[in-house]
Amino acid sequence: MKLILPVEVADELVPHLPTEAEVVRVDNEGNLDDDAINAEVYFSWFFLKPTTLHKVLAAAPQLHWHHAPNAGVNHILTPIYLERDLILTNGAGVHAIPIAEFAIAFMLAHAKQLRHLYAMHAEHRWQRGFQTQDLWDASVLIIGAGGIGQEIAARAKAFGMRIYGSRRHPKPLLNFDKIVGVNEWRSLLPEVDYVVIATPLTSETKGMIDAEALRLMRPNAYLINIARGAIVDEPALLQALKENWIAGAALDTVFTEPLPPESPLWFLDNVFVTPHCSGHSPRVKERSLALFLDNLTRYCHNKLLRNIVDKNAGY
Q1: Where is the D-isomer specific 2-hydroxyacid dehydrogenase NAD-binding domain (predicted)?
Q2: Could you give the 3-state DSSP secondary structure of residue 271?
Q3: What amino acid positions are annotated as catalytic residues?
Q4: N or C: less crowded end of the chain, CB within 10 Å?
Q5: Reduced to 3 DSSP states, what percent helix, strand and coil does the chain have, rounded to the nearest 5?
């Protein structure tokens, strides 16, 4: 069996591969160090470019299974890719813990007004009677109650929050007070204090947080996006923030990344922008390699792989 492995982690993986495995290394430009014509397994790495992906596909006509470390695969499902009948698995769950912690950090930063407290500290200003809010008994709607959404819910429940969620196939889930289907989440917007976007980017979710959705939210509601920037209609969000339809937003992802220095989002007092770093953790690589190796064992024994992507649904 021949595998195509990213140069970033190939040496770490080799000692854990089956003894008969052959390895072809690929760099982030798609350059291969050996012939991949009979390769059947491809493990790509983070920040995969379409040009790199397409070079690998062209070099490996017998490819059967592709594992991507990302949870989101919208950048992979190109027309060229979809022409191939490949099994695609993703890294869903690998980033769930750090992202969930980041979502809670965003809520706490808003509720406890950390921006203002940091400013007061810098000014050496002691202000008595400074007002903050509790997360206890506050409500949150998690749009996308998958692996990441469930990790957020587990942590939010520990703070005593009321937790609502939406998912494609609704069913009761641990820590959620209510789960609705994908077409019902808008009805919950007027009821919640926080809205967390944790759904994959697909043709159905692109721009779903539009002016109508933002108008439905409470004036004190806070929007958190730890998914993909294109899920939010950015011009509508800018209007909502400038005109105080909502209290504010924490955005770990935006439509154009990196966010241009001239973007109005940088200049709004009720916006907290972070550089798409919520999934970062020193343990991400460890978890990514463990997931791939577990799936490789399953693949070698003809067992069902974990995290198979429905390419029609986009996740």
Answers
A1: 104-278
A2: strand
A3: 228, 257, 276
A4: N
A5: 35, 15, 50
Q: What is the pTM of this model?
A: 0.92
Is residue 181 exposed (0-12), middle (13-18) or buried (19+ Cβ within 10 Å)? exposed
Tokens of 251: 């955005």
- pLDDT recorded at residue 183: 87
Which amino acid is it at 214?
Answer: L
Bridge partners of residue 87, in order along the sequence: 65
Closest CA to 53 of 6, 90, 3: 6
What are the structural domains, with CATH classification, of the chain? 2-93+282-301 (3.40.50.720), 95-273 (3.40.50.720)
Per DSSP, which regions of the chain are E strands? 2-6, 22-26, 41-43, 65-67, 87-89, 139-143, 162-166, 178-180, 194-197, 222-225, 248-251, 271-273
Vertex 41 angle, CA 40 and 45, to 5°: 145
> What are 201's two structure tokens?
């980017």
Q: Residue with structure tokens 């992802």?
A: 253
pLDDT of residue 165: 98
Express each pLDDT in 21-73 by its tens digit.
999 999 999 999 999 999 999 999 999 999 999 999 999 999 999 999 999 99
Average pLDDT over every residue of 275-281: 96
- How far, in Å, CA of 255 to CA of 208, rounded? 13
Q: Residue 58: phi, psi to the nearest 5? A: -65, -35
